[in-house]
Every structure is written in structure tokens, then in C-alpha cells.
């Protein structure tokens, strides 16, 4: 398909008219059309202005880069096809070893203009086009960083008793257990024998038991909420969460076993195992919760709009049951 290119020669135009003319022509461009500009100096300030005002909506390429003339092409993109192309390019860049900070910043700027639902749908399409889920996770991590920068919890305006309200309240409890686990692990790492760790070992067993108890939370997500989302065509984000559940469940069980059987272990071996298992949980579980609170749950609320559907989800959740730490609603 041939795309339209409109040329604007700025060389004989008074400087004060240039920017106005550029943005006039840019506004009149349709998607896929390109503005080709000929200029007599490097267009760096213009590039920054585009980045600030039209981030994620244009593609910038040079035809000639001085020293006399600069000819550059600004293509208007906004269709999901072009955004997908841009996301693929970002994933490739994020996997390169150099300039990783610069690539992360570029990805952050781009992702800020995309809603979680659009991103989720695009991710699905990109995976169908051959990018692996593992590669996609790098982009998810950058997305997560953006979410973390905006720490205020997105108010989904849900009433107590709503299945997502309950899941989020459980997340708060799980995060509190993680905080306690951090303290205990630090103490273990600084200790020299089990004798120094009386009450910490009781606490460790208590925390591990409760983290395993959270399997019911995962089950409600997997067997009820994710299925409902998948029926609405949102398949990849739940699949990524399912895979994370598998790793998390394994480590939580290991932590529980460790807290039950430590007496039979050599202290040094125990400390080492405690470090690897707790650090995995401390790093992975809060990230998982963030992704659900800020991306997956808002997507669910966006795609499941019918009260009757939520009523059915609630009944199915009730059948699975709740955790001993689920706050009463
Ligand atoms: Fe989950
Ligand atoms: Fe969760």
C-alpha cells in the first residue's frame, strides 16, 4: 500500500512561521501519512517538541542529516498495527545490552499513552505474531515501573463484597506478611545458631502457613476471574499471571516445609535456603500483586460490565472459599 507523503520546505520561510506551519500540516495529516520536511539546520528542538506533545503517535526518520540540509520524515501513527510495531521495536531494544536506561525511558514515555486494556490486547496480538511471553515480560516490568511511580491506588469504585474488592483486600494482608518475612529473613541472615531464633521461627511458620493459605486466593483468580476475562477475549495477561502462580506456589510450599523441618537441618544450610526462598517471594509476590492491582483487575472491571456476571463470579468465588486472613466485608 502506497502511503501519502507531503513535503514542506522550510528553508526560505521566516523562522517565526516555521513551527506554526509544521503543526498545521501535522494536524491535517491522516494516519499512515507522512510529513517530509526540508530544513537548513538540525531539527532537534522540533523533535523534542514532538516527543513531548505527540509521544507514541509519530515515527521519525532521516533522509539526509546535514551538513547543509536536513531532510526528515515524520509519519503519523496511531493505528494499533503501528503501535504493535513500535512495541516490538521497544522489546528488541530492551533486550539489547547497551543503553538500557535510554531504552527504558523511551518505553516508559510510549507506554504512558496506552491504556492497560489496549496494551493487554496488543500484547496478545504480538505474542500471536511470534514474540515469546518471556520476552514480553521485560516490557511488563517497565510498565510496572510506571505504575509504581504513580503509587496512588487506582480507585475502581468497588463496594465491599465485590470479588475484586475482596481480592485487593487480601493483597494488602499478603503484603503485610511479606513485610514480616523481610524482617525475619534479615534476622536469620545475621544469626549464628537456631538458639538465637526462638520467636522468629514461630513467626516464620505462621507467615509461611498464611502464604500457603493464599492459594485459595490464586484459585479464585484462576478458576473464576481469569476464566471470565478469557471469555471476553483477554487471554495473555491472565496466562502470564497463571505462570507466575506456578512459581510462587512452589516457593511458598518450600518456605512452609523449611519452617516445619528446620530442626533436622544444619544451620548454615538453613540460612542459605531461607535466603534464596524468601528473597524470591519478597521480590516476586509484591510485583505480581502490583500487576494485578494496577493492570489486570482494572482490565477485568473494564471488560466485565454486567452486574449479573459479577454476581455469578461472586457465587463461584464463594464456592471456592476464602483465606483465614480475608478481611470481613
Ligand atoms: Fe495472582
Ligand atoms: Fe492476586
The averaged pLDDT comes out at: 87
Distance between the termini: 57 Å
Q: Based on Cα principal axes, name the global outline.
A: elongated
- Biggest sheet, in brief? 4 strands, mixed
- Which stretches are low in confidence, meaning pLDDT under 50 for 5 or more residues running? none
Structural class: alpha+beta
- For the CA atoms, what is the radius of gyration? 26 Å
CATH topology group of the largest domain: Four Helix Bundle (Hemerythrin (Met), subunit A)
Give the fraction of residues assigned to helices: 55-70%
In total, how many beta strands?
4
Helices and strands in order, then pairings?
Layout: E1 5-9, H1 15-28, E2 34-39, H2 44-53, E3 58-65, E4 70-76, H3 80-94, H4 100-111, H5 116-128, H6 133-149, H7 163-190, H8 198-213, H9 215-231, H10 236-261, H11 267-303, H12 307-320
Parallel strand pairs: 1-2
Antiparallel strand pairs: 2-4, 3-4
Helix pairs in contact: 3-4, 3-5, 3-6, 4-6, 7-8, 7-11, 8-10, 9-10, 9-12, 10-11
The structure holds fe (ii) ion (2 copies).
Description:
- The chain is of the alpha+beta class and 329 residues long.
- It has three domains: 5-76, TusA-like domain (Translation Initiation Factor IF3, 2-Layer Sandwich), CATH 3.30.110; 80-149; 163-320, nmb1532 protein domain like (Four Helix Bundle (Hemerythrin (Met), subunit A)), CATH 1.20.120.
- The protein is 67% helix and 8% strand.
- The protein has twelve helices and four strands.
- A four-stranded mixed β-sheet has the order 1-2-4-3, covered by helices on one side.
- Strand 1, helix 1 and strand 2 form a beta-alpha-beta unit.
- The longest helix has 37 residues, at 267-303.
- The protein is elongated, with a radius of gyration of 26 Å.
- It starts with a strand and ends in a 9-residue tail after the last helix.
- The model has no long low-confidence stretch (mean pLDDT 87).
- The structure holds fe (ii) ion (2 copies).
- One fe (ii) ion is lined by residues 218, 221, 241, 245, 288, 292.
Amino acid at each position: 500500500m502506497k502511503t501519502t507523503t507531503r513535503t514542506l520546505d522550510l528553508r526560505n520561510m521566516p523562522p517565526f512561521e516555521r513551527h506554526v506551519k509544521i503543526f498545521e500540516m501535522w494536524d491535517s495529516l491522516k494516519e499512515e501519512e507522512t510529513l517530509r520536511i526540508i530544513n537548513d539546520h538540525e531539527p532537534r528542538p522540533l523533535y523534542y517538541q514532538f516527543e513531548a506533545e505527540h509521544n507514541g503517535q509519530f515515527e521519525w526518520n532521516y533522509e539526509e542529516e546535514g551538513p547543509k540540509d536536513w531532510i526528515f520524515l515524520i509519519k503519523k501513527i496511531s493505528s494499533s498495527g503501528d503501535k504493535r510495531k513500535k512495541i516490538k521495536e521497544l522489546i528488541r531494544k530492551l533486550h539489547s545490552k547497551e543503553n538500557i536506561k535510554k531504552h527504558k525511558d523511551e518505553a516508559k514515555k510510549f507506554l504512558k499513552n496506552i491504556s492497560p486494556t489496549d496494551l493487554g490486547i496488543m500484547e496478545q496480538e504480538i505474542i500471536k505474531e511470534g514474540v515469546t511471553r518471556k520476552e514480553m515480560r521485560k516490557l511488563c516490568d517497565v510498565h510496572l515501573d510506571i505504575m509504581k511511580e504513580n503509587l496512588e491506588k487506582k480507585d475502581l469504585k468497588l463496594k465491599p463484597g465485590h470479588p475484586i474488592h475482596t481480592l485487593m483486600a487480601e493483597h494488602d494482608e499478603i503484603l503485610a506478611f511479606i513485610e514480616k518475612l523481610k524482617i525475619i529473613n534479615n534476622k536469620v541472615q545475621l544469626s549464628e545458631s537456631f538458639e538465637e531464633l526462638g520467636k522468629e521461627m514461630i513467626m516464620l511458620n505462621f507467615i509461611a502457613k498464611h502464604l500457603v493459605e493464599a492459594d485459595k486466593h490464586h484459585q479464585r483468580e484462576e478458576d473464576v476471574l481469569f476464566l471470565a476475562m478469557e471469555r471476553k477475549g483477554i487471554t495473555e495477561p491472565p496466562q502470564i499471571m497463571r505462570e507466575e502462580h506456578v512459581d510462587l506456589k512452589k516457593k511458598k510450599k518450600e518456605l512452609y516445609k523449611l519452617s516445619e523441618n528446620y530442626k533436622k537441618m544444619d544451620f548454615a544450610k538453613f540460612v542459605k535456603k531461607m535466603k534464596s526462598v524468601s528473597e524470591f517471594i519478597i521480590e516476586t509476590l509484591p510485583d505480581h500483586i502490583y500487576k494485578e492491582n494496577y493492570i489486570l483487575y482494572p482490565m477485568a472491571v473494564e471488560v466485565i460490565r454486567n452486574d449479573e456476571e459479577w454476581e455469578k463470579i461472586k457465587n463461584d468465588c464463594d464456592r471456592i472459599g476464602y483465606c483465614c486472613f480475608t478481611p470481613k466485608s
